Amino acid sequence: MVTIAIIGGTGPEGRGLGLRFAMAGHAVVLGSRDAGRATAAAQELLALWPGLSVAGAPNAAAANTAEWVVLSTPYDGLAPTVQALTPSLAGKLVISVVSALTFQGGHPRPIEVPEGSAAQQVAGLLPASQVVSAFHHVSAHDLLAPGTEVEGDVIVCGDADEAKGQVMTLVEQVRSLRAVDGGGLDNSRHSEALTALLLDLNRRYKTRTAVRLLGL
Amino acid sequence: MVTIAIIGGTGPEGRGLGLRFAMAGHAVVLGSRDAGRATAAAQELLALWPGLSVAGAPNAAAANTAEWVVLSTPYDGLAPTVQALTPSLAGKLVISVVSALTFQGGHPRPIEVPEGSAAQQVAGLLPASQVVSAFHHVSAHDLLAPGTEVEGDVIVCGDADEAKGQVMTLVEQVRSLRAVDGGGLDNSRHSEALTALLLDLNRRYKTRTAVRLLGL
Question: Angle B118-125/B188-205 helices, nearest 10 degrees?
Answer without folding.
Answer: 140
